[in-house]
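Field reference: sequence -> structure
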Amino acid sequence: MGTPCHFALFDLKPDFRIDLDQLGQRYRELVRSVHPDRFADASEREQRLALENAAQLNDAYQTLKSAPRRALYLLTLRGNALPLEATVQDPEFLLQQMELREELEDLQDSADLDGVAAFKRRLKNAQRQLDDAFAACWDDAARRTEAERLVRRMQFLDKLAQEVRQLEERLDD
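Structure field:
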């Protein structure tokens, strides 16, 4: 038996736009039913299955909760995985990445909290725009290449957002 689709696990239809509150609520319900503690008196096999189910559920939740991971998962459901030769065919984005990295380094060097907050707002806005663009094209086979390019951009901005959060934590200390 293959693993069920992440969306089916949470009673969601495969789509980029999902209700994150509903996802979280359903996750909490399901986690209680497969929590290994509930199987403390069960056989070793049942305990192992409970652990596997809990791990699978957690992986599905983490994937669907994250826009870039959800986007990548949707494309994988639709066919092949993303080719790895990432941004080379996207020189405009490559340049934007370098500029954003430099700006973040400058903010780090100057320990500019207001600048970091403004950078974070711009980043969130750029992520929203990418989400909207991906939502509009992911399910259209003719726009597959565009969807793949957008996922790579989403992954980069997500990684950058994590770095911004880490920088904020360091500057707050």
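Note: The chain has two domains: 6-65, 87-172.
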